[in-house]
Specification:
The complex is a heterotetramer of chains A (326), B (422), C (281) and D (334). In chain A, 65% of the residues lie in helices and 2% in strands. Chain A has a two-stranded antiparallel sheet with strand order 1-2. In chain A, 49% of the residues are buried. Chain B folds into two domains: 197 residues, D-Maltodextrin-Binding Protein, domain 2 (3-Layer(aba) Sandwich); 207 residues, Periplasmic binding protein-like II (D-Maltodextrin-Binding Protein, domain 2, 3-Layer(aba) Sandwich), CATH 3.40.190. In chain B, a hairpin with a 2-residue loop joins strand 4 and strand 5. With 281 residues, chain C is mainly alpha-helical. Chain C folds into two domains: 40 residues; 213 residues, Orthogonal Bundle (MetI-like fold). In chain C, helix 2 crosses helix 12 and helix 4 packs across helix 6. Chain D has two domains: 230 residues, P-loop containing nucleotide triphosphate hydrolases (Rossmann fold, 3-Layer(aba) Sandwich), CATH 3.40.50; 87 residues, Beta Barrel (OB fold (Dihydrolipoamide Acetyltransferase, E2P)), CATH 2.40.50.140. Chain D has a six-stranded mixed β-sheet, with helices on both faces. In chain D, strand 4 and strand 5 form a beta hairpin. The radius of gyration of chain D is 23 Å and the shape is globular. Classes of the chains: A mainly alpha (326), B alpha/beta (422), C mainly alpha (281), D alpha+beta (334). At the A-D interface, helix 2 of A face loops of D.
Chain lengths: 326, 422, 281, 334
């Protein structure tokens, strides 16, 4: 697919002359892209196709190779009972699935929103000149640096109602009247998961935004300073527009990650219905229950949902694909 | 001493004759933990010396969910790198297709084990795993507190409720504000299936799915049992119990903040550790029973087994290893050093064990009340059945609907899952 | 210090440092608490304290004696380093092609690469397992390095493409006039200009690879090939249900320290901001 | 040392034709300036010569050889960019040496000598160890020129090199470039600008471009004195040539009459009368703007400082031998 697409745009209008420079560049581009594409095709393409294929079969993990084609049955199938009522089955008719969709979307929205805002604040702070900046920069990366399985357990421990330090702290500071069983109660489980995810992932955002901030030429600010532009206005008129490309990419990847959230919830609140996301549900069906095909269906639907979201995002956010002059 | 060496060398030479030509390299995967792994290694060393095979241990995370997912994937892909698997009691029926039938190979030793355990590992007449040790929970109680308030060890749930409430209130009044009456495992996970199965069975409410495959859970006695448990949350048990697994409940217990505690035998030796606040202050008893028809004390059957992969490249040696790990010899060693409960009935009367681990003979009584989870009749669907069950129970405990309502839905869901047959 | 005390300025910088302090405390506190926990043992674990009560390095000793932790640490370093080098190498060249050479279907290609990031990792597990066994790299570090490209590559390609697109065209043209081939442009002109982006993405990819658990657990079956997150999950207490908090926290401290060191080493590069001068008047 | 020949060169970006068929010859050692309003295609033409941009059709010859497909470096060109385009991470020395390092076969010593020689020419030797960001704008532009010189090119291309500098630096650097050309008169130079003053002062010959086509090529004086079209006449020279139409033009048998401000005389019996609307006093000259019923005011350039209050009437006459007559098509009537 890639090699066909590689023909330079200009070649259509002039088949006869192709400059050495253009040829060199296109040839280089091809060589630069091929290894990456091969790597991705093997590491992602094949497994992806397998999963999608399984979603149209009755595969079980005990019998992967004897799976038979069932069409869209895993997605939606129906059965007309003798009384005439129609019974819908399949993932799309499963309330658990829609509950998971809702949890996932809710989680992704709030976590990315907070991470973006807090990440921006942290990045702006780190972009300022002050003493001990290096240490602070290392310090804020710590949450991101701790393996998820560990930080999830660590927070599970800290959020425990009896021996958790968060409850202890909350009570001592008078913020909580009684200890809260954060991860156990259906009302607070999502909050707990959000707190941990925001804590863990804000550094990722902050660092990407910081890299964007670093590429803004300083003299622009100097000029604004001389013109007496208020710092708040500077932020909205200069910083935000200039950091936007980096920010958009950071947000895309965060949202994609958030929509696929798995490990944190799997460790922190594995079975709580109020935090069960699509990935957790899919994992359960794929490996814990005997519903491999259903799990594949859920994975494929999750993929579709994310794809639709991404297309919308790119379309509405006007993310620039064709930038650059060459 | 001399005799033993002689015996070992004789055995070794015998097996050498048979196996010298093909000293196999085996690997066993185990989710066992610290001491358990060390013990396993020591036994494997013995096995290596006796047979000339070499065995590598592949340790796995102690989370049984992680283990199960991995094993399924490996087995599904026909992984030849693992010969022997350590399996939870509930896995055998779900993984039956991928394990070798050990009926013939183990014909000589099967009779030594508790029949109920052998049964739990038999699927469609195929013995898929040999039991290595068993497990059954008990009621931990504070001797000192019961004495202080002149109470007996409760034998029914109602007694437990009353005693717990009374002591808790009194202790709190005395300034011990963190005291609770009863802690158990109320998180939505496999552990809750175990706890709730005990409540239901002890109340004469059946075993969720009966051995013949009938779905029995939607009955009044079962609903009453679960409703009763729901009444504990926030009264004699902390709200947080809804998020507790074994360790959290043990934490509360071991800080001296609970009168009663439901847990597995492992909490016994830890509770008697030097840094424990309840060291020497507690004892164990069979779990209480409910009331009504068929009420009895019930303890969910736990325990671990060894199974041989269908994809093993040296199945004979692998079977040999499995048999070794399930043998009376190893089980005795295990009981002595790990205080794991043997699956061989005779070992409960063993003098050495009684001397070294006095708790084990006690547990025989508890074990006799053991109830298997419905993994055998539900076969490959067990995990989903269990998940549906614990969700229904957890909902009830959290106050989302009454037990009767939730069990009715559960019955319908199970019926869907079952279809024509499990 | 000026002769007059500027109250407004003082308040402003005081507020700024308060914010810095707050950010640091929130970031570090759980980690601090982990260290605190790692120094405790037994029933002490269940008691809330804010300051270290006892100093016992027993847990740290256990980390290094249980299993093959030092070996796992080395594996992690190897896997994460090679993953990052490979991802950056493939991504830098690919993003040059994607940001600087105009060809048909470029947008589609970028979308395709992004699509790889849209599939839940849990769902590719089974297929990936087949591929890895087919390639014969099962239970080697290469299996992990290979599998990790699934999340490091799309991410690095996208971020670097964005940054490379922002580099001035005239610098590239100057290099072309100087006779530089695309390879020379990438290595000698663009890469030095992209240090902040390279170090940042490299670091993020490194941490992602360093912390990955599920693939590592599935694609390795021996202590000698496993990485640190799996090793931590394998750290265990005396019995089945017992969770060895002290040891786990000690191990977490041990695995986090190299990352903090890495950040300290590279932090100059993260904020070098070289492009600011010289490109334009 | 190269002559450059362009034969019917066309360039289009997609559907947009930017260069619509240019024929041009640049002689060896010549200083050629491309001027024209923005969007006329002058920069594109330069980039086509450099090889940075692909030619859509036509032929480009260097010393008689077709170079259409050759890369910039193989054409033996060097280029100075508007934004200098220095490599920010390299010192001045490294910037200047980069091209030579990439060409195989130069010893380190040889590279050093060539860089230093170029640095001496431009008086930037003391900056060789600095980074571009430590230099002023003018110094940076000299480094950019130095980088081009070091490569010892056959053709030297300048793309509006002075437009980022302030007025004083612009004049100084302009003189420097002129001196440079004198010092290397076997090197062909092509220089793009929109500023006709730069064009007039630097060029051996000027090529005026308009809308993708060559309007006229000639020496500055040829263009000044014999413009081939109203467009060229209006573009070259400062102040801009005055154009008169209607009766005033008809009196000279043409559609449009062009007359430069410096070619008008103020005299009481001048044939045209106008009202002074504005006066610009430049010290040496004075520009007087007259309203004469034409589209734009007529500018008269007078020597010395003169005072003509706004609102006063002034009579002027064109110098008869300096008038430019154009027909309906805008072509000169000679």
């Amino acid at each position: 697919m890639a090699t066909d697409a590689m023909a330079p745009i200009t070649s259509a209008s002039t088949p006869k002359i192709k400059s050495e420079l253009l040829q060199q560049r296109v040839r280089a581009a091809r060589w630069f892209l091929v290894p990456m594409l091969i790597a991705l095709a093997i590491v992602a393409g094949w497994p992806l196709m397998r999963s999608i294929w399984f979603s149209f079969t009755d595969a079980t993990l005990n019998d992967l190779y004897g799976a038979e084609w069932v069409g869209f049955g895993n997605y939606l199938r129906w059965q007309v009972l003798e009384s005439g009522t129609v019974r819908y089955r399949g993932v799309l008719a499963d309330p658990d699935w829609w509950n998971a969709v809702w949890n996932t979307v809710r989680f992704a929205f709030w976590s990315v929103l907070w991470e973006t805002v807090l990440g921006m604040i942290v990045a702006l702070v780190l972009n300022a000149e002050f003493r001990g900046r290096g240490i602070v920069r290392a310090a804020i990366l710590i949450p991101w640096a701790i393996p998820t399985i560990v930080s999830a357990r660590m927070w599970g421990w800290m959020l425990n109602d009896q021996f958790g330090i968060i409850n202890d702290l909350g009570m001592k500071l008078g913020l909580l009247a009684a200890p809260v069983a954060w991860t156990a109660s259906a009302d607070t489980a999502m909050t707990a998961v959000l707190i941990v995810d925001i804590w863990k992932t804000t550094p990722f955002m902050a660092l990407l935004i910081l890299a964007g901030l670093q590429m803004i030429p300083k003299d622009i600010y100097e000029a604004a300073e001389i013109d007496g532009v208020h710092p708040v206005k500077q932020f909205f008129k200069i910083t935000l527009p200039l950091v936007r490309p980096a920010l958009m990419v950071a947000i895309i990847f965060r949202v994609l990650d958030a929509l696929r959230i798995f490990d944190l919830i799997y460790v922190l609140t594995p079975n709580s219905r109020s935090t069960k996301t699509m990935s957790v549900l899919a994992q359960e069906n794929l490996f814990q229950f005997n519903n491999f095909a259903e799990g594949s269906t859920q994975s494929t639907l999750l993929f579709l949902l994310i794809a639709i979201f991404t297309i919308l995002y790119i379309w509405l956010g006007k993310v620039n694909f064709e930038g650059g002059d060459r | 001493m001399k005799l033993k060496t002689l015996l070992v060398s004789m055995m070794a030479s015998v097996t050498l004759v048979a196996g010298a030509a093909q000293a196999a390299e085996l690997s066993i995967v185990s989710g066992d933990t610290g001491n358990g792994l060390a013990f396993l290694r020591s036994q494997l060393d013995r096995f290596e010396a006796e047979t000339g095979h070499t065995v590598t241990v592949v340790p796995m995370p102690s989370s049984t969910t992680d283990q199960f997912g991995q094993y399924r994937l490996w087995l599904a892909a026909g992984n030849t790198d693992i010969d022997v698997y350590q399996t939870d009691v509930i896995w055998a029926p779900q993984l039956a297709d991928q394990f070798l039938d050990l009926t013939e190979a183990a014909a000589d030793v099967v009779d030594q084990h508790f029949p109920s355990i052998i049964e739990s590992q038999t699927v469609d007449g195929k013995l898929v795993a040999l039991p290595a040790f068993t497990d059954a929970p008990a009621l931990y109680y504070r001797k000192d507190l019961l004495e202080k308030y002149g109470k007996e060890v409760p034998t029914t749930w109602s007694e437990l409720e009353a005693t717990a409430k009374e002591i808790m209130d009194a202790e709190r009044a005395a300034g011990n504000s963190e005291m609770w009456g009863f802690v158990f495992q109320g998180n939505a996970y496999e552990g809750l299936t175990c706890d709730a199965l005990e409540w239901v069975v002890s109340n004469g409410g059946g075993q969720i799915v009966e051995p013949d495959g009938t779905i029995s859970i939607n009955n009044e006695q079962a609903a009453a049992a679960i409703d009763r448990a729901a009444g504990w949350v926030g009264t004699i048990a902390p709200e947080g119990v809804l998020g507790y697994m074994e360790e959290e409940s043990r934490g509360v217990w071991q800080l001296g903040n609970a009168v009663f505690h439901r847990n597995w035998p492992y909490a016994y030796s830890l509770g008697n550790g030097d840094d424990s606040a309840v060291k020497g202050l507690f004892d164990v008893a069979p779990l209480p029973m409910g009331d009504g028809e068929g009420a009895r004390s019930a303890a969910t059957l736990g325990g671990w087994n060894v199974a041989v992969s269908k994809y093993s490249q040296d199945p004979e040696a692998a079977i040999e290893l499995a048999k070794f790990l399930a043998s009376a010899d190893v089980q005795k060693e295990r009981a002595l050093s790990q205080s794991n409960l043997p699956t061989i009935e005779a070992l409960y009367d063993d003098a050495d064990i009684a001397a070294a681990q006095p708790i084990i003979p006690n547990w025989k009584e508890i074990f006799q009340n053991a109830v298997p989870r419905p993994s055998a009749p539900t076969k490959t669907d067990y995990n989903e059945v269990s998940s549906l069950f614990w969700s229904a129970v957890h909902d009830t405990l959290s106050g989302n609907g009454s037990a009767a309502e939730n069990l009715e839905i559960l019955e319908a869901d199970l019926q869907d899952l079952k279809g024509d047959a499990w | 210090m000026g002769t007059t005390f500027d109250l407004w300025k003082f308040t402003k910088s005081a507020a700024f440092y308060a914010l810095v302090l707050f950010i640091v405390v929130v970031s570090v506190f759980p980690f601090y608490y982990a260290i605190l926990t790692s120094l405790k043992s037994g029933t002490d674990l269940f008691r809330v304290t804010y300051w270290p009560t006892s100093l016992s390095f027993d847990n740290f000793r256990q980390v290094f004696t249980q299993g093959a932790f030092p070996r796992n640490l080395l594996n992690s370093v190897f896997v994460a380093t090679v993953t990052v080098i490979l991802a950056l190498f493939l991504a830098v060249t690919a993003s040059f092609a994607l940001s600087r050479v105009r060809f048909r279907g470029r947008g589609l290609l970028l979308m395709t690469i992004l699509a790889v990031s849209m599939f839940p990792q849990i769902a590719v597990l089974a297929g990936l397992f087949e591929v890895i066994r087919f390639l014969g790299i099962y239970n080697t570090p290469w299996a992990l390095i290979f599998a990790y490209t699934i999340f490091t590559l799309p991410f690095t390609v996208w971020v670097l493409t964005t940054f490379m697109r922002d580099l001035p065209v005239e610098i590239e043209e100057a290099a072309i006039v100087d006779g530089a081939t695309p390879w020379v442009i990438i290595t000698q002109v663009f890469m030095p200009l992209m240090w902040p982006a390279l170090v940042t993405t490299g670091l993020l990819a490194f941490i992602a690879a360093w912390n990955e658990f599920l693939f590592a657990l599935t694609f390795t079956v021996s202590n000698e090939t496993r990485t640190v997150p799996v090793a931590i999950a394998l750290l265990s207490g005396g019995s089945q249900y017992e969770i060895p908090w002290g040891i786990i926290m000690a191990a977490s401290v041990v695995v986090t320290v190299p990352l903090v060191a890495l950040v300290l080493v590279f932090q100059r590069k993260i904020v070098s901001g070289l492009t600011a001068g010289g490109v334009k008047g | 040392m190269a002559s450059i020949e362009l034969r019917n060169i066309r360039k289009s970006f997609g559907a947009v034709n930017v260069i619509k068929g240019v024929d041009l010859e640049v002689r060896k050692g010549e200083f050629m300036v491309f001027v024209g309003p923005s969007g006329c295609g002058k920069s594109t033409l330069l980039r086509l010569i450099s090889g940075l941009e692909d030619i859509t059709s036509g032929e480009m010859l260097f010393d008689g050889k077709v170079v259409n497909a050759l890369t910039p470096s193989k054409r033996g060109i060097a280029m100075v960019f508007q934004s200098y385009a220095l490599y920010p991470h390299m010192t001045v020395y490294e910037n200047m040496a980069f091209g030579l390092k990439l060409e195989k076969g130069h010893s380190k010593e040889a590279i050093r000598q060539r860089v230093e020689k170029a640095a001496d020419m431009l008086q930037i030797r003391q900056y060789l160890d600095r980074l571009p960001k430590q230099l002023s704008g003018g110094q940076r532009q000299r480094v950019a020129i130095g980088r081009a010189i070091t490569r010892d090119p056959k053709v030297f291309l300048f793309d509006e090199p002075l437009s980022n500098l302030d007025a004083a630096l612009r004049v100084a650097t302009r003189i420097e470039i002129a001196k440079l050309h004198e010092g290397m008169h076997d090197v062909t130079m092509i220089y793009v600008t929109h500023d006709q003053v730069e064009a007039m002062t630097l060029a051996d010959r000027i090529c005026v471009l308009r809308d993708g086509l060559v309007e006229q090529v000639g020496t500055p004086m040829e263009l000044y004195e014999k413009p081939d079209s109203i467009f060229v006449a209006g573009f070259i020279g400062s102040p801009k040539m005055n154009f008169l139409t209607g009766e005033k033009a008809a009196a000279f048998n043409c559609t449009t009459l062009g007359i430069r401000g410096e070619h008008m005389l103020v005299k009481p019996d001048g044939i045209w009368e106008g009202e002074v609307i504005h006066t610009e006093n430049l010290g040496a000259d004075t520009y007087v703007y007259l309203e004469m019923g034409q589209e734009e005011p007529i500018v008269v350039r007078l020597e010395g400082a003169m005072q003509h209050p706004s609102g006063s009437k002034l009579r002027v006459s064109p110098m008869e031998d300096r008038i430019h007559r154009f027909d309906e098509a805008g072509k000169p009537i000679r």
